Amino acid sequence: xxxxxxxxxxxxxxxxxxxxxxxxxxxxxxxxxxxxxxxxxxxxxxxxxxxxxxxxxxxxxxxxxxxxxxxxxxxxxxxxxxxxxxxxxxxxxxxxxxxxxxxxxxxxxxxxxxxxxxxxxxxxxxxxxxxxxxxxxxxxxxxxxxxxxxxxxxxx
Amino acid sequence: xxxxxxxxxxxxxxxxxxxxxxxxxxxxxxxxxxxxxxxxxxxxxxxxxxxxxxxxxxxxxxxxxxxxxxxxxxxxxxxxxxxxxxxxxxxxxxxxxxxxxxxxxxxxxxxxxxxxxxxxxxxxxxxxxxxxxxxxx
Lengths: 156, 137
Prior knowledge:
Distance between the termini of chain B: 30 Å
Largest interface: A-B, 23 and 19 residues
Number of helices of chain A: 3
Shape of chain A: globular
Number of domains of chain A: 1
Order of helices and strands of chain B: HHHH
Helix content of chain B: over 70%
Strand content of chain A: 25-35%
Oligomer: heterodimer
CATH architecture of chain A: Beta Barrel
Number of strands of chain A: 10
Order of helices and strands of chain A: HEEEEEHEEEEEH
Number of strands of chain B: 0
Shape of chain B: elongated
CATH superfamily of chain A: LytTr DNA-binding domain
Number of domains of chain B: 2
Number of helices of chain B: 4
Radius of gyration of chain B: 18 Å
Helix content of chain A: 25-40%
């Protein structure tokens, strides 16, 4: 199976295209890995049903027993619980940072620590979340896994 | 993540106690000091180990509070109990005139070193993570 990467200027969104005659074992394995990353999540906003790929979600937050998913500029109410999201999607970069929120590691721009050892997480959409000390170990463990995955992909 | 739990509490106390006693003996050997209150001090080391591990085990329950007040609060509890212990001991046996100062130093120095290492590791982790995130962009 060949991988052809093409850089295109002014592309609105990155995309993958698969050309095949038959889906062989190798291709199926690649698709299986992608399936996790390209999952979609459904929710409601202003009475309308909206669907977003998981990779577009910046973070999830639970407010008054309701769960919300935030994208670059939209917020949708979803049915899943934070616990459910973590157990299903932690392999695609989601990690818990407080009792009420889960962040997508791929959407983090930078971290900043304060004197009280709370970590401020600045996202790529310039929003800021706060990570409690209690979730630090879990966060860095997830980051370590992601780093390992990135390293493997670069080596390949 | 709870590092100290009821299953490993005593093994952590034993390890800490062994390290403290070995350190004490090594230090005394190096400076040629003979401890006249050897047995009293050994039990004091054990008491401090149990107390310190107990206070540190509470750290997990205090994670939702800001670090600085928690660290200061834990230090005050440890130093308070240690000095109270010395004061009680002074009623039953003879203690050195510098006992309070010595205990203050013995508790404060390791505590401050531990806290500083913990604090530095926090910012080092952030620095490393930021390097990774900037590479991801």
